[in-house]
Amino acid sequence: MTATLDRPHVWLPGADGPPLLLLHGTGGDEHDLLPLREHLAPNAPTLSVRGTVMENGMPRFFRRLREGVFDEDDLHARVDELATFLQSAEQHYGVAAGSWLAVGFSNGANIASATLLQRPHAFSGAVLMAAMAPFHDPPQGVDLTGKRVAVVNGEHDPMATRNETERLVGQLRERGAAVTVLAHRGGHTVDPRSLPRIERFLREAR
Asked: Is residue 2, in this structure, part of any structural domain at all?
């Protein structure tokens, strides 16, 4: 795929810590998660990206067959598309290759974990909020040693259930990732009470 910066995004320069990559949930856009920067890493260089798939007028990062069932062929293609975009962004904005710390919510968390499992050199780590396991059969031969990942799921999330959380954490740990589970008592949401714990996780990941 040809590298391009045509994809809608927001870039915020910064000089403190690893660059953040913000990935919104279904129906969001590149502005949705920008307020998180002030809570998590206010001086970090930050790239926020819009999903390129539309579902009933709502942006997403990949297609699904129905709620909770992903189109994995499309997911593989969209991971490659995102990784190619990030390579172009690295060159344009002067970001070290593969240094992104992805922070994703719901659909954004799922494209982030899929990228870790398919293109592990794209990220240095990730924060996955309201996240499900992206692949029924993840790519084989992937080594996530040295990758730090926080899974931040709600105990009452009807989509990212306890079983889904355990499956995702298992897939990541089996490939060597250092996974921290930051459960909260809410549902399918960005839980404000979790933000200090995520900030601490990101600070320790530097």
From this structure: no
In a domain, 4, yes or no: no
157 is catalytic: yes
Q: What total of structural domains would you count in the chain?
A: 1
Q: Which two tokens stand for residue 163?
A: 């079983």
Q: Does the annotation count 6 as an active-site position?
A: no
Instruction: Give per-residue pLDDT as tens, 48-99.
Output: 999 999 999 999 999 999 887 899 999 999 999 999 999 999 999 999 999 9
The Cα–Cα gap between 97 and 88 comes to 10
Residue 48 among the catalytic residues? no
24, 113, 124, 157: the catalytic one is 157
36: domain CATH number?
Answer: 3.40.50.1820
Cβ atoms of 55 and 107 within 8 Å: the answer is no
